Amino acid sequence: MNTSKRCESLKRVLPILRRHLTVNTLLVAGVLALLLAGHVAQMSHGWQSNRAIVRLTPVLVMLRPLSSAEFVAATPRVEVGSVGESLDKALAVQVDTWLRAVESPYTRATGYLITGQPRTARMALPLSDDSFRARWLLALTYARQGQLERVPALFLGVQGAERALFEAGMFEQDHHNELAATQLLQLAESVGRPEEVNLSRLYSTVVVNYANIGQLDLALVWSERWVTATHTDVEAIAGLAGVYIWRHQPDLAYATWQRVDPIVARQDPSYAGDMGQIYEAWGQWDLAYEMYQEAWQRHPGDPNYAWYLGQFLARQGRVSEALPYLQLVARNGREGLRQAAEQRLLDLKAK
């Protein structure tokens, strides 16, 4: 957004913010103002940015930290200056002017959090206040300052904390902010009642996120927590076996699958593909091919299972049989897998 357009945006925003001061919606209006002015932080540094706070606002609103009666009626107005004026500074001055007139520490802390001033927000909260909303706001101020280790204790006993953190984490995951998602989901698991959320979705997301960045030790830790928390649920077993395969530990992967009934295990969508990789690692080619074929037949057209089968056939020297599967992956696979298939095809062509 160029300077001229941002200035016009800010001029539109400030009246919106001022008008909403009288209807008990400073929080929503402030978020709207920041969005329109282009000031909401991106999630490149984890969930300590404004968007995560916006996602948690239903809880803050439920706790009602805002009250129009707390605002002084004749609030000084700061006009936006010339095009060359710092818009960030203009917006900060405008909001700070209003916030200083607010009596409620909860409202002031919320406003300071939204405008990126976690230290000031922390100072606005009474040290002796142990109410639910004070805990929420205090936890968010610590998170904004990167002091995540201080957050879980504050959420203990706060009604709705697990679900709010879980939903915020999945929101970040859906927007490809894996760091933010992992942090929030781990907090959701740690605050006391993880049964309030979808455990399989929580654990599987954390495990895959760690595996995708090569943190296989942490992926293993969270897979084991998943198995323990769900009492050896087959989906958790599949997750743990998958981590062992990623770690090139086929014996442990096999032993993990033996922990559930064979009939139940074979019904899991991951089982055949996992067993194919285990048998291949053991050099049992016929059994490996049989399991890869079973996985493909159960998931026809799935690029993941086409990749397993195509790679196996290529490694066995059966290139003509491998090509249709690898070509399917190159057309339809997710980005990383598609690129791997394209490179594999080039390598086979060069031989």
Q: Please estimate the helix content.
A: 55-70%
Describe the global form: elongated
As a whole number of angstroms, the C-alpha radius of gyration is: 26 Å
Which structural class is indicated by helix and strand composition?
A: mainly alpha
Share of residues in strands: under 5%
The unreliable regions are 1-85
Spell out the helices and strands N to C: HHHHHHHHHHHHHHHHHHHHH
**Whole-Å distance between the termini?**
51 Å
What key phrases describe this protein's structure?
351 residues; mainly alpha; 21 helices; elongated
Question: What is this structure's SSE topology?
Answer:
Elements (H helix, E strand, L loop, with lengths): L2 H18 L5 H12 L12 H6 L1 H6 L24 H13 L5 H10 L3 H7 L7 H13 L6 H5 L5 H14 L3 H13 L8 H14 L3 H14 L4 H13 L3 H8 L4 H6 L3 H11 L3 H14 L4 H13 L3 H14 L2 H16 L1
Helix pairs in contact: 1-2, 2-6, 6-7, 6-8, 7-8, 10-11, 11-12, 12-13, 12-14, 13-14, 14-15, 14-17, 15-17, 17-18, 18-19, 19-20, 20-21
In summary, what is this structure?
With 351 residues, this protein is mostly helical. Helix content is 68%, strand content 0%.
What features would you describe in this structure?
- α2 packs parallel to α6 and α12 packs antiparallel against α13 (216-229).
- This protein has 21 helices and no strands.
- It has helices at 3-20, 26-37, 50-55, 57-62, 87-99, 105-114, 118-124, 132-144, 151-155, 161-174, 178-190, 199-212, 216-229, 234-246, 250-257, 262-267, 271-281, 285-298, 303-315, 319-332, 335-350.
- The radius of gyration is 26 Å and the shape is elongated.
- It is mostly helical.
- It has a domain at 1-147.
